[in-house]
């Protein structure tokens, strides 16, 4: 009898959790497992704001996939999935190969959501992957270096679009990094302007207002200027144009514009004709795509409703990893001929938003935390993600142990 | 009786040598000494190719002026001289101040000579000072980072205009640095192109042909492509256009163009109406400007003829420092009422052109040297310049001691 073939697309939090759990639960005769990923490394999406600000190096935020998978059970294919042919059960890869599957796990990350704002795709940077993160850091440093040559003040202005989770964490790192850059490039700190523009009526919507207040006050002390309730109308080669009052607009000249607001699903979802809302799939309780008994969708491409507030959970590493665990055990059941798949319930252990490596805010197990304690917990959360996928060796190698400040 | 006032413009090799010798030779009651410089630091012009390639940090190629001058004898003014009023014996400074003098030493560095080639001033970088050097390094790194995002091959092409001293030394550093950058940015080394374009019929004109052959072969092994006898016709936003055959041209697409050919005198010479040839002053034997008994000109702005070949000596640190020594002793004589000023004779101790930090070529005390030995001598020359101006403390702090490879 032919072994069933499980294909996992994406080696992010969800995909790697699926594969590492599968390789524990299944023997090498039970199933063929194939992992497809664009790079031969996994990167910590939740640490990219640090690479973007240069507070961590690109190498610190990634690790080799080969270091966590069991090669005797998992085949790794370095390629990019471009389309899923649902009828023929095949994945089309960028380099031209086709990959058939019995079960498919779509664990691909999302794409930046620019909400149709003109020029953002062209003139704004995005904290999307290791390459774009590194580009942001190099871009800012190049602007600082060039300021010393041509003295144009806008070279020292950084606009961050969005005061959500990523935006605030990035601002926290910038707050710590800018004084170091000023020293390195002989620049007066007062010349640097960091402006955060957020269309919503508050920073960190959904967070406890007291914590939001703590975070914005802290970032303001680090010279961040907030423009809350202000919509970006356009990004241009010179900076951005924001709404002002009813009909007016205002230009903010800035050499660096980083768009840190909103994630939509991966284009492959739409391309493959899987039922979706803005590229994300409202999955069944067992995490399968509606109407497809052999396709699971997890992570940024999936949409799970928080029944308490009747809104989707935001896409996070935490939820992706929990989904990966469940998909692995559901796949193990299917391979073993069982049909009683388990339903997914999100167990929210809390959320911590870092504000540089020395401060943070968050809610952990229902309790509000700030300051050093929150920062410590954030690092524990980061280390836990490493531990869940790669055990102690990976945690020792890539973990954050600068815990005492 | 009023103390005579000596104003020295520029804290390069010539200016600092003048001031540090003067402060030894004169007591604080003998003369008032004022040093004017744009920055509060001196930078090693001959090391800038290393900062430009990122093999040395900007901080490694500079030191604080305050660390070598005797504040009880020398006033330091951080400003830029814009004009000398010869009639009224005043220097006009950028910030608006005026500085009167009894004796003036113009020891300002040169400016890049672009020979009227279109677009070079706008689209090419120049290894001129710490700021432009740092900008070049940051620019290349930003291009490498961006290549990983947009995959445009020209981002990995670097054109160096000129195979003279600076050009060849910069190519040597690039040869060593590019493999490191490729590792840092996950780039295949084969994708990077370095093209050196030189209009003259040979690299390093004036150097021994055997040494030139050694240098070009070594750089070619480090993947530098030489286009000797090829003139740059134009620099554009996309790269450069070079002459090809009699009438034809060829475009070389390159995100980075570094112009490393030719130095002309400082614009202040022309601006002040001092007799000059392309901004450089053909000085009298005692290093005074023709017809001016109170103005000395040394370094890049001066022109001293090598009688043997009836051509000017190239502007180097070695000649500037020897000029500084002579000017200091001539000034001491003038202050003491003597009129028998000494004449300048250049004592050429040799020239070494580095090819990365591990190889070099040169002629030292009349002998040809290559390889590790030449590289060692180059570092000794670099350390000697530090020692001559700042003694042992400065040499220990900023010297090059990675002598054994």
UniProtKB/TrEMBL annotation, chains A, B:
One of its GO terms (molecular function) is NAD(P)H dehydrogenase (quinone) activity. Keywords: FAD, Flavoprotein, Oxidoreductase. Its cofactor is FAD. One of its GO terms (biological process) is aerobic electron transport chain. Signal peptide: none annotated. Pfam families: Pyr_redox_2. Residues 5-324 form the FAD/NAD(P)-binding domain. Belongs to the NADH dehydrogenase family. This is NAD(P)/FAD-dependent oxidoreductase. It comes from Siminovitchia acidinfaciens. The lineage of its organism: Bacteria, Bacillati, Bacillota, Bacilli, Bacillales.
């Amino acid at each position: 009898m032919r072994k069933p073939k499980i294909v996992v697309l994406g080696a992010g939090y969800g995909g790697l959790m699926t594969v590492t759990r599968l390789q524990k639960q299944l023997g090498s005769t039970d199933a063929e497992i194939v992992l497809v990923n664009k790079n031969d490394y996994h990167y910590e999406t939740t640490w990219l704001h640090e690479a973007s600000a240069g507070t961590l190096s690109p190498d610190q935020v990634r690790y080799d996939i080969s270091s966590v998978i069991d090669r005797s059970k998992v085949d790794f294919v370095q390629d990019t999935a471009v389309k899923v042919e649902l009828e023929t059960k095949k994945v089309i890869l960028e380099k031209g190969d086709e990959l058939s599957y019995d079960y498919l796990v779509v664990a691909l990350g999302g794409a930046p959501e620019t909400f149709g704002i003109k020029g953002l795709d062209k003139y704004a940077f995005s904290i999307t992957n290791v390459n774009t993160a590194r580009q942001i850091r190099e871009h800012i440093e190049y602007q600082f270096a060039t300021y010393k040559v041509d003295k144009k003040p806008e070279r020292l202005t950084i606009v961050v679009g969005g005061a959500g989770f990523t935006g605030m964490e990035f601002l926290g790192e910038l707050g710590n990094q800018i004084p170091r850059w000023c020293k390195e490039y002989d620049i007066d700190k007062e010349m640097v302007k960091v402006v955060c523009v957020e269309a919503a009526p508050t920073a960190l919507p959904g967070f406890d207002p007291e914590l939001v207040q703590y975070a914005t006050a802290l970032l303001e002390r680090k010279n961040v200027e907030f423009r809350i309730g202000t919509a970006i109308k356009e990004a241009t080669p010179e900076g951005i144009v924001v709404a002002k009052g009813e009909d007016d607009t205002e230009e903010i000249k800035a050499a660096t514009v980083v768009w840190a607001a909103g994630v939509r699903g991966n284009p492959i979802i739409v391309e493959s004709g899987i039922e979706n809302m803005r590229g994300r799939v409202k999955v069944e309780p067992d995490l399968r795509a509606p109407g497809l008994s052999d396709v699971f969708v997890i992570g940024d491409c999936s949409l799970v409703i928080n029944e308490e507030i009747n809104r989707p959970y935001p896409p996070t590493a935490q939820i992706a990893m929990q989904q990966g665990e469940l998909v692995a055990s559901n796949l193990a059941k299917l391979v073993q001929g069982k049909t009683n798949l388990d339903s997914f319930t999100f167990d929210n252990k809390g959320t911590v938003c870092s504000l540089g490596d020395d401060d943070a805010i968050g809610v952990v197990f229902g309790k509000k935390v700030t300051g050093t304690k929150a920062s410590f917990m954030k690092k524990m959360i980061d280390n836990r993600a490493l531990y869940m996928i790669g055990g102690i060796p990976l945690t020792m190698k890539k973990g954050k142990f600068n815990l005492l400040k």
